[in-house]
Amino acid sequence: MKYINIKPLGEFYVGLYPYKYCVLDTSWIKFLDKKIKVLNIPPPIDFETNSSYKIKSDGHPTKELNSYYVKEISKLIFKNK
Question: Which residues 6+ apart lie within 8 Å of 6 measured at CB?
Answer without folding.
Answer: none
